[in-house]
Write a structure and sequence with these properties.
mainly beta; 2 domains; two-stranded antiparallel sheet; 5 strands; 15% helix; MIZ1-like_pln
Length: 75
């Protein structure tokens, strides 16, 4: 988490730390060892008991709308 301390907003993948000696399985192991992340200021809204959404907003408050919207709907 110390790596993300300087990031105020964004998304990406942190590289894995495991080393492997097998070249064939190296790509599969490296992909499993990576950690995806999303960091930012989020507004959380609950639409009903079956739906909620997260809106990533700019830290400066740009006023142009959300940078990213994630919707969760229970079917």
């Amino acid at each position: 988490m110390e790596t993300l301390r300087v990031v105020s907003m964004g998304a990406g993948v942190l590289p894995g730390t495991r080393a492997t000696s097998l070249v064939i399985d190296a790509a599969a192991v490296a992909a499993d060892d990576e950690v995806p992340y999303m960091r930012g200021c989020f507004d959380h809204f609950i639409g009903s008991r079956d739906s909620e959404s997260l809106y990533m907003v700019a830290p400066q408050g740009g006023g142009t709308g959300p940078e990213l919207a994630v919707f969760f709907v229970r079917l």
